[in-house]
Amino acid sequence: MSPVRFALIGTGRIGQVHAASIHRSEDAVLAVAADAVLAGAQRTVGQHGGRATADPFEAIAADDVDAVVIASPTPTHVDLIAACLDAGKPVLCEKPIDLDITRVDAIRERAARGRVVLGFNRRFDPHFAELRRRVQAGEIGRLEHLAITSRDPEPPPAEYVAVSGGIFRDMAIHDFDTARSFVPEVVAVTAVGLRQFDAGIAGQDDFDAAVTTLVGAGGESITITNSRHSAYGYDQRLEAFGPGGALEVGNVTPTLVRASSAASSSTGEPYRRFFLERYREAYELELAAFVATVRGEDAGSPGFEDGRAALLLADAAEVSAREGRTVAVDLS
Amino acid sequence: MSPVRFALIGTGRIGQVHAASIHRSEDAVLAVAADAVLAGAQRTVGQHGGRATADPFEAIAADDVDAVVIASPTPTHVDLIAACLDAGKPVLCEKPIDLDITRVDAIRERAARGRVVLGFNRRFDPHFAELRRRVQAGEIGRLEHLAITSRDPEPPPAEYVAVSGGIFRDMAIHDFDTARSFVPEVVAVTAVGLRQFDAGIAGQDDFDAAVTTLVGAGGESITITNSRHSAYGYDQRLEAFGPGGALEVGNVTPTLVRASSAASSSTGEPYRRFFLERYREAYELELAAFVATVRGEDAGSPGFEDGRAALLLADAAEVSAREGRTVAVDLS
Amino acid sequence: MSPVRFALIGTGRIGQVHAASIHRSEDAVLAVAADAVLAGAQRTVGQHGGRATADPFEAIAADDVDAVVIASPTPTHVDLIAACLDAGKPVLCEKPIDLDITRVDAIRERAARGRVVLGFNRRFDPHFAELRRRVQAGEIGRLEHLAITSRDPEPPPAEYVAVSGGIFRDMAIHDFDTARSFVPEVVAVTAVGLRQFDAGIAGQDDFDAAVTTLVGAGGESITITNSRHSAYGYDQRLEAFGPGGALEVGNVTPTLVRASSAASSSTGEPYRRFFLERYREAYELELAAFVATVRGEDAGSPGFEDGRAALLLADAAEVSAREGRTVAVDLS
Amino acid sequence: MSPVRFALIGTGRIGQVHAASIHRSEDAVLAVAADAVLAGAQRTVGQHGGRATADPFEAIAADDVDAVVIASPTPTHVDLIAACLDAGKPVLCEKPIDLDITRVDAIRERAARGRVVLGFNRRFDPHFAELRRRVQAGEIGRLEHLAITSRDPEPPPAEYVAVSGGIFRDMAIHDFDTARSFVPEVVAVTAVGLRQFDAGIAGQDDFDAAVTTLVGAGGESITITNSRHSAYGYDQRLEAFGPGGALEVGNVTPTLVRASSAASSSTGEPYRRFFLERYREAYELELAAFVATVRGEDAGSPGFEDGRAALLLADAAEVSAREGRTVAVDLS
């Protein structure tokens, strides 16, 4: 089978990740990289092949492009997805679709008729995916409780926080999607927003930590513990609990070396600090699944409705945290 | 120093635990065991020494009794504590003081002038106590988040559930005290009550699982995850998080044997299933601290106000779970 | 059943351990403590009851003594055991019986007709005992390999080394017994003696570390890794390997607290440093088994022949290390 | 820099591994694949590019070849290395150089003037390499003891055993090199050969398990525990011990999922079973280091002398095991 020819829109940090995944894949090739800053696109194709352009719409429409990866700033997502839908091309778009649900809903119907994949890369993390597979295989019986721990190593810069949409829409949105990969139908959101350490975030009326409890249609509970900092690195853990037992995934260290000394025993290395290290395999597997989707297989990639549902949950969490009450949601 | 002479009120399961702790201690001796069922008291003194009586008030008042342990049914606690206060004798009373805050408050003032210790044994668990010591020593900086996992191996009998006061007052009350041993001043309670597996509990309008988020006066967050069942044994874990890192205590296995086979690797034994096994050391250390209290030292035992505060938090959690809103509390 | 009345010979460090075990047991009582230094015996009975004497033979012969624990210096063991055999009293003797096999063999026949238990306390360590139970229950199939790691926290004082009999007879002798608790019939010994860090030990023509490989009659291999020092505490581990898999026991920490920080993850406490902490439960269970032996039950306590076999293996290891050749042994 | 152009000699299982590593590398390209079975070479270049030949010497000599990887059967290694040396081309040869030390020594002098890299891939395992880095950085002080555990999942086919050179030359040779990557100067070998489970191997007068103790020039001890089977997968562990503490690397699981149930706690997945899974990263890093060597950097790749030393240690171990005595070695 000939490799899928990609247009990559946006060649910043996350765009680079996708360019490298395309390069390493035997089933993908970079046809064109687009970036408003043309030099960025040029640097990318210099390393990974293809041609460069400053015009994303030209790239999307190009004859030698089979599929599109959108890694440009959030405000551009809706228009670019729309262009892909118009061109009849499968698209993998970084989350979120948009910070405003009305803009999301404006293309919802059209999206339902196309192939839109959302960049919730954590669904493809081998550890989390294996835990989910075993839950779905019934190993612990009906899922009763899911505990998601999700802490970033450090807060983003203040200027990023200002346009991020807040901790729920920017950070917890990944965890809402993880929750939904186990319990698609969430019916209630109870969130507690916290201001524990970052005066800048508080000054923007945002939270630097949060605890959110979701309840599923089947009575399942899901807790999400977020913080904008974590001294010991990127804190990404899952624990699933059912009548038959529990399954858990802890944090990942670079190697398995453990040390013992007079001061301590069985000491592991610091956890992987950065999301690109922690989720390196996930990004490659996300692209592989998208390639399969492009080729017409059902690879289990999250879609437009998943992106919309995660935003709805974030919106509900925001209301819950601000008003101190449980908020009912309807994701249908 | 001559050993402290004890009256033990109640010789059921938990009374037996205290009788054995008294027996093993070099600083304590059982003077009298009281039980409405005299045969129970007689069996206890046959094993551990002392005399038996059916009248707890006689035991409390006896000249050869220096201190009292109350392990009788909850409804008797308030009157027995009052008798100890009248007799001027230090008392260790099993939790809760009572299920009704008005009955608790009725003896509050008097209790303030006596020495009343509450049986929150988990404060003395060596694992939890060491974690708390390290938090208080500043190892992780200011405490930001505390995660308490607390699941019973299996639900209590229906007749017990009926008089238990519900999951918050009966079960989570221990966890509320654990929370307060880290963050004494809790200001808000947000609880989600769940009905996941036990129709009998649901039929009594109670919950079989719950997720509670407490917020402390300093902005600390505490999550408590409760369930009335746990296939893998008694699930009692702590995790503390601060700007300098995290400290955690997992579950306890009987021995450290681990197995590897074609099917699995590094498999541990099932966790200790029963609270008497899991907290065996804690009960002995609780008694040792009470002996120290009796002798006039400050041994850090939880007191009447701690018992009252835990009940207030349970009451607040009940309201929060039923009304779907955050409840403000004032523990002063 | 009335408690077994004990004579304790020797009230030094290890004698104190046995005195405390007797005190805590509901089935044992200290009748008399004997020590050449009478003050030591007096201090012991002041704490744990009974009477004091400077004459061990009087204590052994006393009418109110049912059984004897020998915790005096090694050169006294043979005569004291002989006295117990003469008096027809069961005896628990600290290892070794003697450093000289001819002195051991001198009482061998008599010992065969009495009840002599050797103080190989590690057989009763709950972790090791459970591993052995699972091996013997067939969980990993026929035992093929046993790896024993055994390092002391630090070297003994030079004056102790001088009379210790060397690393094999003094230290590895415990490990030879552990080996034999799995593979009683050892047929060959190959030892490598090492001088890695302690000039004083080398100056006494002794080794400060050793690697010994035993081969059993069934072709089993057993490796014993010894060192006279270990920065991270008392290093006492077991690993058993068979066609069905492996079982292992690692080192023991005081509590289960684990820490994560910017520098490291999942850091445990330093291992228990001292053999009295590490084997505290083992000493209590050793005494309980001896009480059962006294009462005529078969409690699996190691006997005189086990003490003799361990010494034979130590002698063979010494020869092997010095001559650089495998030494055949016959333990029958 | 333009990529290094490779000739690959041998396209069996291990040849495929190298072909894939070359493919994935941005710094390498497959110029020619040679195999006596031409179809094998053709299949390889069909997948990874380049041209196919049945003549390895033509491939080595070809103008468009910068460097050679030898993955053909052992008896061909010496002549192929010689051809590379004649052609002045750097060569990465799978271990062993040969099973016969006289054939190795016949090209020793010539090899000293060329660039011969030996395929001891485990030196590049990220876990082992990091442990070694920390030992060499002095974290535990002077290395005193190294414990190498090395068990294959299952025995090789009988026909392979027949020509393998025996457990020491075929299997333990990797571990001898690992030992030398920590302690290059080994002076004594004491080996115990075992026949524990495989009648076929015993019938060929070979061992199915072995315990080898090496002593280094500085008094270091190294134990190597080998078995030709392991129910729980490929058993590849390291532990280093020094006056400052210990460092260890355990076995690798595919993911970090752990399960707890009524039967067991914290159960990991079975270890990676196959050397290609366990050492996947090591093979890629081995090639990367060879590329660096080709480009004139010192990448720490093991060389001809390392291959020779490992064979000398295997020969000494064979003698030691058969004669029951310690064998002195001189690796200079």
Name the chain pair whose interface involves the most residues: A-B, 36 and 36 residues
The appropriate CATH architecture of the largest domain in chain A is 2-Layer Sandwich
Strand order of the largest sheet of chain A: 12-11-7-10-9-8-15
CATH superfamily of the largest domain in chain A: Dihydrodipicolinate Reductase, domain 2
CATH fold naming of the largest domain in chain A: Dihydrodipicolinate Reductase, domain 2
Q: What's the total number of strands of chain A?
A: 15
Helix content of chain A: 25-40%
Q: What quaternary form is this?
A: homotetramer
Topology as H/E string of chain A? Answer: EHEHEHEHEHHEHEHHHEHEEEEEEHHHE
Shape of chain A from CA axes? globular
Determine Rg of chain A (CA atoms, Å). Answer: 20 Å
N-to-C span of chain A: 38 Å
Tally of alpha and pi helices of chain A: 14
DSSP strand content of chain A: 15-25%
Low-confidence stretches of chain A: none
Biggest pleated-sheet summary of chain A: 7 strands, mixed
Number of domains of chain A: 2
Question: What secondary-structure arrangement, pairings included, does this model have?
Answer:
4 copies of one chain form a homotetramer.
Chain A: E1 4-9, H1 13-24, E2 28-34, H2 38-48, E3 51-53, H3 56-61, E4 67-70, H4 77-87, E5 91-93, H5 101-106, H6 108-112, E6 116-118, H7 126-136, E7 145-151, H8 158-163, H9 166-170, H10 172-182, E8 186-194, H11 199-203, E9 209-216, E10 221-227, E11 235-242, E12 245-249, E13 258-260, E14 267-268, H12 275-278, H13 280-294, H14 304-323, E15 327-328
Parallel strand pairs in A: 1-2, 1-4, 2-3, 4-5, 5-6, 7-10
Antiparallel strand pairs in A: 7-11, 8-9, 8-15, 9-10, 11-12, 13-14
Helix pairs in contact in A: 1-13, 10-14
